[in-house]
């Protein structure tokens, strides 16, 4: 029986989660929300995490009924992410590990998303589409690594959506992506945008600057809703296309969508249509698990801990750059 | 028209491939069927563009003396393209998996790939989807069998055929060529992760294939794109 606590704070979400043998007993979160037209910056985000982490930790312990002495391993996000916010969680995790005299384990954020998705959906060996504000990757498991088959060659899809929301001065509450999704539902007119697929890789920066450069003209002919609709239709079609390509390449019949953009229902719907055509199944989760959280870190840490992975206290650092395929997966065959 | 009933050969991610007799010849028909997940306007645009790219690049390859299936007919209305059928072939992917352990084969193939890519790029063609599945090895003289004998390789009896030019374009920039190489490196790393030097050998042959040089800029762009990919901060 493994009880693990996880601290996540690689971007503007701060999460503490606790898992007991694959059961989620606490999943607490706070989001740092910036005013319309603004993105989150490292220093302010770190301050937000500092101000909230004790309350979130207390909430998670209370909610779960778990006391520190019952915990087997303290997990935190080692990277990738923004340095300063990562550091806040790492420091609190180290302090807890010392205070409670427990082992500490740094977890790769991307691996956290994948393992959480597999836990929640029971997908067995899926092709994974990992889409968030900082990442866009197509991943499949092969010989002890989650290997990256395709990814963005410039900005992440979530970053593209968030920045477009800023161009339109949309609210960041609850999240810019959510507001684009709602606006897109009201859009009716489709405006053709650049479509950029290179093999299994994609590029989004061209689409964003195309929109930015013409925004005043575009708003003469199209409503913001139409533009959100056109943007979503284009970038999601690109993602579904490279996912299908990767599935064909690996002979896979399961897709798992993880990461913040993964809770977009239109993306899930398009993926579903693609999968239906090829007799495959799509797995996705809702905002509780798609969006960054502490549980994913706790669960990935619990898996690593159970398979014997250990981290020396002196190694409990953070890193802004930490690729998914750098991690040796000891808990899968 | 002399066109026999087409037989479905392969159902791919974006196209169905049929074989039939067309004007007395064994012919491949590649039909880019509608993808229902995407907006119909976008779908039509993508399909038209890809058929156009494929036809254009095949023609340009002919000019550059790069072997591709010969182009017979383009039918935009029915989203189809008719091409030469190469009965005896093996994809580089299957070849490396089956025979890759024999080093001499491995090197010969890698060099062929490097030289062909260099020729493509020297003629300003960017493939756009370089993988080991999009390269075929065929005997210089097609036989009736559908098997492939690796011994042909040692005797220099084979040639490399590039296929699937749907994502290609011509008059490409140096950056595009760099990305092309990067896409190949990534594809080989994920598909043939047990042969780490495959790409290195290809790249070496690519660099030295044309004695006139002029490759430095492409290589430095490639390294720039690669650095961008590896070092990019990945914020969750």
From TrEMBL, chain A:
Record's subcellular location: Cytoplasm; Nucleus
Q: Which GO terms describe its molecular function?
A: metal ion binding; tRNA N(6)-L-threonylcarbamoyladenine synthase activity
- Give the enzyme class: transferase
Positions annotated to bind substrate: 130-134, 162, 177, 181, 264
Gene Ontology BP terms: tRNA threonylcarbamoyladenosine modification
- Where do the annotations place a divalent metal cation binding? 109, 113, 130, 292
Q: Which SUPFAM superfamilies match?
A: Actin-like ATPase domain
Q: Which NCBIfam families match?
A: arch_KAE1, gcp_kae1
Q: What is this protein called?
A: N(6)-L-threonylcarbamoyladenine synthase
Automatic annotation (TrEMBL), chain B:
Quote one Gene Ontology molecular function term.
protein serine/threonine kinase activity
Under which EC number(s) is this enzyme classified? 2.7.11.1
Localization annotation: Nucleus
Where does the protein principally reside?
Answer: nucleus
All copies of domain Protein kinase, residue ranges:
3-236
Q: Which UniProt keywords apply?
A: ATP-binding, Hydrolase, Kinase, Nucleotide-binding, Nucleus, Phosphoprotein, Serine/threonine-protein kinase, Transferase, tRNA processing
Q: Which reaction does it catalyse?
A: L-threonyl-[protein] + ATP = O-phospho-L-threonyl-[protein] + ADP + H(+); L-seryl-[protein] + ATP = O-phospho-L-seryl-[protein] + ADP + H(+)
Q: Does the keyword Glycoprotein apply?
A: no
Matching entries from SUPFAM superfamilies are given as:
Protein kinase-like (PK-like)
GO CC annotation terms, alphabetical? cytosol; EKC/KEOPS complex; nucleus
What family is this? Answer: Belongs to the protein kinase superfamily. BUD32 family.
Q: How does it assemble?
A: Component of the EKC/KEOPS complex composed of at least GON7, TP53RK, TPRKB, OSGEP and LAGE3; the whole complex dimerizes.
Q: Which NCBIfam families match?
A: arch_bud32
Q: What does this protein do?
A: Component of the EKC/KEOPS complex that is required for the formation of a threonylcarbamoyl group on adenosine at position 37 (t(6)A37) in tRNAs that read codons beginning with adenine. The complex is probably involved in the transfer of the threonylcarbamoyl moiety of threonylcarbamoyl-AMP (TC-AMP) to the N6 group of A37. TP53RK has ATPase activity in the context of the EKC/KEOPS complex and likely plays a supporting role to the catalytic subunit OSGEP. Atypical protein kinase that phosphorylates 'Ser-15' of p53/TP53 protein and may therefore participate in its activation.
Name-wise, this protein is: non-specific serine/threonine protein kinase
Which organism is the protein's source? Trichoplusia ni
